[in-house]
Amino acid sequence: MRPLEGIRVIDLTHVLAGPFSTHQLCMLGADVIKIEKPGQGDQTRGLSLQPELKGMAPGFVALNAGKRSIVLDLKTDEGRRTVEKLVATADVFVENFRPGKAAKLGLTPERLHAIKPTLIYCSISGWGQVGPNASRPAYDHVIQAATGMMLLQGDNPEAPPMKVGFPMIDIGTGMMAANAMLAALLRRARGDLSPIVLDVSMVDASAQLMVGAVANYWLAGIAPRRVGNQGFVGSPGADTFPTADGWISTAANTLRQFQILCRVLDRPDILTNRELLPKLPSSPDGFLSDLNNKALRDELVKAFATERAVVWEERLAAAGVPASMVQTVPSYLDGHYVQSGRVDSELEAHPLGRSTSARILNEGFRWTGEARSRPRHAPRLGEHTAAILEELSQSA
Known about the structure:
By secondary structure, the chain is α/β, with parallel strands linked by helices. The protein has helices at residues 17-27, 58-64, 77-88, 101-104, 109-115, 140-146, 168-189, 202-209, 211-220, 255-264, 294-304, 309-319, 329-334, 336-339, 385-395; strands spanning 8-12, 31-36, 68-71, 92-95, 120-125, 196-201, 240-242, 247-250, 323-325, 344-346, 359-361. It contains 15 helices and eleven strands.
């Protein structure tokens, strides 16, 4: 039995953050009913841009497999009445409209709690439900700019801002929303019958993702700086180095680890060279914090350049120093991902009817002794409209 079997989620979200949050609940067994616009559906279906995919673009499939789709026009009285009927059968309601739009549609927490007092109401937005910025639109890279994240990438303080190479804040927001809804469900399971309204925002998620930088600024008054591919401790042995055929990233943070690194590189002389290392921690487990300098890095670069990345990775791993050659996403998925235990699920059927298998990432962790689930295919636009309406008529 999946943990959320018997839990029904009414999903009025679209694009990425909201659908990712309900994807987490769906993979845990919840019955997620996705409400979509007539004709268009979730924008990530790509119906207008990629009609050959028949509304089954990879990004849509990845976040919506296993859900049920019903088409409703929320601008009509009939559409809103159907949402209210669904709410009466549900445990969770989640939306990611811009603040104020749900109210215009008559889908406020107060209205829906009058229908189902124990309903968990979750709103996901860019800037939160209150404050001067609440009504502003938002996308991932805009929030990266607004929260300082763009100025943490790279190592040159004078360089232009650079966003993270994937929509990190959208995914982080979805994770935070899923965590909030799970916490709310636990409150319900413990007998709490009070109204629950959750306000999950992209700006708050960004702060959570940058918790170390936030803590340094709040508690020590230290503004974060750009550190490039260095480890955050600032050790000279925690960096990314060019090799004979690629790049390797190492994490020799402590004195003990750095000593091993120098031995593996056949450069033990570095440890006694006070021009390169003016001081060392007193403890073998002490961090070599902020001891990096250009001269020392140049010596390490010369040493790493003598061998291939995969050789250094194998030698350092065998010696107990965290290290990995820099991979592409495909090489990671075909290599380390498979070797380290998978967190994916194979769909019952390929979304485009092909004979090959189709996989998606599931809830992202492993259950002891449990086989991987096989979710239903991602729903075609409105695929379950008739069935869901029939369920509502029978329960009326």
